[in-house]
Amino acid sequence: MQQDMIVILDLGSTENTVLARAIRALGVYSEIYPHDITPEELKRLPNVKGVILNGGKNNVIDGKEIDVDPELYHTGIPVLAVSHPYDPDDSDAVVWPHKESALKEALKPFVFDVCHAQPNWNMENFIADQIELIKQQVGDKKVLLALSGGVDSSVVAALLIRAIGKNLVCVHVNHGLMRKGESESVVEVFQNQLNANLIYVDASDRFLDKLKGVSDPEEKRKIIGGEFIRVFEEEAGKLDGIDYLAQGTIYPDIVESGTKTAKTVKSHHNVGGLPEDMQFALIEPLKQLFKDEVRACGLALGLPESMVYRQPFPGPGLGVRCLGAITRERLEAVRDSDAILREEFHNEGLDKCVWQYFTVVPDFQSVGVRDNARTFEYPVILRAVNTVDAMTATIEEIPWPVLHKITERIINEVAGVNRVCYDLTPKPTGTIEWE
């Protein structure tokens, strides 16, 4: 089944994804394309029922105001112009409402009455479509997936298991910088519950040996990222008959990496970052989905909530939360204190309303008292932030009783720790992570 689609053409708006998400919330699929798409390119897109011209304050490129090809108005596809209340650019345009609910109501007449689009965009249809597409593309060949345990790669794995079963080969590399129980959870879910063809590689000692004495954050990131690729390549080299590489590219990766004319927010490694001489063909079944849709897909595929709602986690893992040169002692302090924080947030229901929360252990010690004796041990720093786009972040106000309980547990249960602090710095001026 192919879903009906409303195409959004970017004429300098900073709110394209908001508009696309509002249309999807109505049950109709929507994608964003550059303003200079040709009528022929538009007609080749599947099931296009309508086009929205989304103007905005960035509608000037190289000194010229951008516009669409006039022939787009003669394709027989309905066209609607949308302007923003802070920058109206067309007296005939529909003005953008401030609230999401009002925006959806404003779009309904065009989407349903003018375009006659069917509200057939949902996870059940999406999963069925992707399974069929994957079967057609892959046939009886094998697919390789680097399974980090993150939301995106986990959902890709679950979807591919449905489509090709044992012809999917998952490789999970434990670099020793995972949170407590995460690698074990990946093995339990995918190998034991989903019966996946999973290769588990414990490379903890290898990574920690490479990181010994390295204190510069950027150098740590480069070592961790580079060594991960080396391990993955080694494991892939032991396998025969791998024709496809799967990855968890999602729609914001594509949008943020820019179009032919739109500004690039940031280039993602999984969008145009792979070598040109790569011998694999790509499988990217989630590239149409926003993050919340990825989570909904994971739940529909039967993944546990603990995996689907996994906290955002940096690629270098706990390596950038064990500040300075990593030691095994402080790494365990980060791992154990983080587990306590996550457990207590879950018990209090805070895991459902806080975007990201974690602990940090710096590379200095402070004086304390334990059992009437002087101690010289490490502090643990708690961080809990809320954000929409990770560009800015506010601090979550944690109830005092919860903070007291977390503090008491950490200083009594985590070895080598005698002090707990709560980081109240928003972004900016601080960043979300410490390194």
UniProtKB/TrEMBL annotation:
Tell me one GO molecular function of this protein.
ATP binding
Q: Which domain of life is it from?
A: Bacteria
Which Pfam families does the record cross-reference, listed alphabetically?
Answer: GATase (PF00117), GMP_synt_C (PF00958), NAD_synthase (PF02540)
Recorded E.C. number(s)?
A: 6.3.5.2
Q: Which residues bind ATP?
A: S148, G149, G150, V151, D152, S153, S154
User: What InterPro entries does the database record attribute to this sequence?
Assistant: Class_I_gatase-like, GATASE, GMP_synth_C, GMPS_ATP_PPase_dom, NAD/GMP_synthase, Rossmann-like_a/b/a_fold
Q: What class of enzyme is it?
A: ligase
Q: What are the alphabetically sorted keywords of the record? A: ATP-binding, Glutamine amidotransferase, GMP biosynthesis, Ligase, Nucleotide-binding, Purine biosynthesis
- What Gene Ontology terms describe where this protein resides (cellular component)? cytosol
Which pathway is this protein engaged in? Purine metabolism; GMP biosynthesis; GMP from XMP (L-Gln route): step 1/1
Q: Does the keyword Ligase apply?
A: yes
Q: Please state every residue range assigned to the domain named GMPS ATP-PPase.
A: 121-310
Write out the function statement from the record: Catalyzes the synthesis of GMP from XMP.
Q: What is this protein called?
A: GMP synthase (glutamine-hydrolyzing)
**Species in which this protein is naturally found:** Congzhengia minquanensis
